Amino acid sequence: MLSPQNLQRIEELKKHYRTSQALVLPVLWMVQEQFGYISKDAMKYVADLLKLPYGHILGVVTFYTMFHPHPIGKHHIEVCTNVSCMLRGSGTIVGYLENKLGIRLGETSKDGEWTLSEVECMGACGGAPMCAVGEEYHEHLTPEAVDRLLERLS
Amino acid sequence: MNPVPAMEPVILPNIKNLHLIDIYEARGGYKAFRKALGMKPEEVIEEVKKSNLRGRGGACFPTGLKWSFMPKKTDKPKYLCVNGDESEPGTFKDRQIFEFNPHLMIEGTLIACYAMGIKTAYIYIRGEYGKWIRMVEKAVTDARSRGYIGENILDSGFSTEVVVHKGAGAYICGEESALMNSIEGDRGYPRVKPPFPAQYGLWGCPTTINNVETISNVPLIITNGWEWYSKIGASKHPGPILVGVSGHVNKPGVYEMPTGVSLLEIIYKYAGGVPGDKRIKAVIPGGSSTPILRGDLLEGVCMDADSMKTAGSAVGTAGLIVMDEDTDLIAILARIAKFYHHESCGQCTPCREGTGWLEKILNRFVRGEGQKEDIDLLMDVANNIEGNTICALGDAAAWPVQSMVRRFRDEFERRVASPPVENLVA
Prior knowledge:
The complex is a heterodimer. Chain A is of the alpha+beta class. Chain A folds into two domains: 4-63, Arc Repressor Mutant, subunit A, CATH 1.10.10; 75-153, 3-Layer(aba) Sandwich (Glutaredoxin), CATH 3.40.30.10. Chain A contains seven helices and four strands; from the N terminus they run ααααβααβββα. Chain A has a four-stranded mixed beta sheet, with helices on one face. In chain A, strand 3 and strand 4 form a beta hairpin. Chain B is of the alpha/beta class. Chain B has three domains: 21-230, NADH-ubiquinone oxidoreductase 51kDa subunit (Rossmann fold), CATH 3.40.50.11540; 240-324, Roll (Ubiquitin-like (UB roll)), CATH 3.10.20.600; 329-417, de novo design (two linked rop proteins), CATH 1.20.1440. Helix content of chain B is 42%, strand content 12%. Chain B contains 17 helices and nine strands. In chain B, strand 2 (120-125), helix 7 (130-145) and strand 3 form a beta-alpha-beta unit. Chain B is globular and about 75 Å long. Chains A and B meet through helix 2, helix 4 and helix 5 of A and strand 3, strand 5, strand 9 and helix 13 of B.
């Protein structure tokens, strides 16, 4: 299931950890990077690979908010609504995004292009309000900046 | 009170491309590590102890003392965890180190490993910082290629490995024992203490955990000596500190300053004051868990452990959130409560259930349905969480509520007397 490169990376990682269980997070990241989400079959595969119970993998996947047990949109927009962003108008940004994309927080558009999520503090409070698309942070958001961002992505 | 003299930044100095190893070395980088390798490990610990460096991750615990808890004679391997999980709302300082001065953190990590006889260090970074994780990985690779990491470092006979470990989105993993469980590939559940990490940490082996900024102070102490360091800023909590200022200020951002600078100076001199010259209604001084302070009582309150304690709050992660006179504090508190409810790991009943109730009751006030007795109910729930949980997340959820009710009871009473016509958004 995992690419040969990833399997090679796992072999290298084994040197750095005392148990194979410690590879759960790194391996789940590989799965998600390769497939976009972590399916039940993928969880079973990781369980077999690391010789751990499936329940353990399921427990880990569902504990961490960044692991997706279901497919998500091609573009994942994560808007911070925590205190610092709230004080700088994240409410307006959320409303604007919901209107533009025609979906609410937590939803994926029917064409599978967009997923809009509310996230907790992303550590960019100095650039509030902000959102992240993948690993890119977009700070000091305004409705105009959101327009430009969506245009670039679509 | 005498103003604290400003200092040239040393954690985040204004040097272009300092993140590149060539520039870092040209500016004297890794000389502290070389110097430490020429000292006895216990001399390094003693130096850090005398410097009075205190942790920058929230608890202000003396770093040298923490290091001295590590057993000298043990047949088990020892570990260092560098905590870069930075997830406390209002905190965004460690990311600056990853981006602008990662080698300082790596050098501090190596010195710490040498001092405590550690062969493997894990730098745990929150998953959301994917871009910054790659920056740190690049810096680690470069440091290894120059012979600072690996076997027989600089022919000293000392060997150590540095591994970057990516989190996956969980505030609780910033708690030291949850972080260790996370590295072990488990859910981030905090562990019951004692035993403390120095006895029973990663895989049951002696482990020390230091915050990214804390560890980045270490090379400065080794280079300049403990006396130099201990004279910077507040005497009982000395050194440079990265203060993140956010919310209603003209120039939000991370500012490096000595400890002990007054909050008003931070807000008005460093962060350019409040937009529209509005009054400050309240500040959260050190990240969302630290007790809220009234804006009209900020005179003389400084960013150091003692001053904050006197004022009834804490330095925390020095993430200062400023709220102007028009802020709906109840909406803000409801948002904070939502955060702790979301991030509670669910192990302890008081926290798992209590954080949910705090959020529910506060949302009642937001909707204008709060009753007078709900004010005391909030306190009751918060008091029953505080001190009754395995880790400090329960306390972190209780403190904002307790301090807000204590210091802004009038806000709640006004909301009961005249509920808002429509939902207010801060």
